[in-house]
C-alpha cells in the first residue's frame, strides 16, 4: 500500500511517499481502507519534532480516519466488512492515518454519520472529539451560559461555535474581519475582530462588565494568560494548547476560576454523541481545502503558514483516484 512516511523531524520535506506492507488485523482489531484523513496542528507539531520521545522514526503519522471496513480480526462483533467508519487513531501509539489502510482497535471506532462525506467525517473526528471533551466533559457548559471561542474560523474553533450553540450557550468569538460572515453562519452571536479591537474590552462591553462563563482557548500564550480578564466569577477556562512556557494566570484567583487542560482521549462514545448532533443538523464540519495523499507535504506547509486563508479544515483524499485539488 501507499503511505506517507516521516523519515526525520523537520519541515514538510521530511515526508516521503513509499510502498509499505498492508497491515493485518489481530484480535479485537479492524482493518480499514482509508478514504480520507485531515491535517491538524498536532500533525505538524509531531512532524517538526515537538514530541521526539513519543514518536519512533520512521513513522506513519496522522490523526483522522474515515473509510470502509475491509477485514475484521478475531473477536470483533461490532463491525463487518463494508461498514463505513470514522475515528481518531491512538495518539502516540502505533501507525497513523497517512496511508491507504489502517488497523485500529474496535473500541475506538464509530459508524460514520450517513449525512457526511468521507472528507467531512475525516475533518471532524479529532477536532470534534477534542471539542466535545473540552466543552461538555471538562468545562461542563450549560444552557444559558456564555462562552468565548478564540479562533472561531479555524479547524477547532468552527466546531466549537456549533457545539456551544447546540448546548444553548451565547457564543462570542474572535476572528479576522474577512471571516465575520463565516463565523455568523456557524451561529456565533457576537463576532470580534481581534485585529481592530481588544477582545477583553469587547467582552466586557457586550456582557455589561460581567464577563463570560467559559473561555475556550485555541491560541495559548498571551491569550491564555489574559483569559481571566474576560471571565465572570466562578468562570472556567479550557485550553487545548500545549503549554511550552510558564504562564502567569494570577488574575484567575480573583475570579475563583478553574482551568482545564485537554489532550483528547479516544473512545467511541464521543463519536456517537457527535453523530447524534450531526444527524439532527446541529453540527457540520467545513472543509476549506482538499489535497491528495501524495500532497500531504503541501497541506502541512499551508496549515502551518500564518494567514493561510483556510476556513475550517484541510482534508486529504486517499486512494488511486485522488489528485491535488488545492483550494476549492
Automatic annotation (TrEMBL):
Pfam family of the protein (one): ADH_zinc_N_2
Chief site of localization: cytoplasm
PROSITE patterns attached to this UniProt entry: QOR_ZETA_CRYSTAL (PS01162)
GO MF annotation: an example: oxidoreductase activity
Keyword Oxidoreductase attributed: no
Taxonomy, superkingdom: Bacteria
Keyword list, A-Z: Cytoplasm, NADP, RNA-binding
InterPro entries named in the record: ADH-like_N (IPR013154), ER (IPR020843), GroES-like_sf (IPR011032), NAD(P)-bd_dom_sf (IPR036291), Quin_OxRdtase/zeta-crystal_CS (IPR002364), Zinc-ADH_QOR/CCCR (IPR051603)
Domain Enoyl reductase (ER): 10-316
GO cellular component: cytoplasm
Subcellular location: Cytoplasm
CDD domains: MDR6 (cd08272)
Subunit note: Homotetramer.
Name of the protein in question: NADPH:quinone oxidoreductase
Native source organism of the sequence: Paenibacillus lutimineralis
Lineage: Bacteria, Bacillati, Bacillota, Bacilli, Bacillales
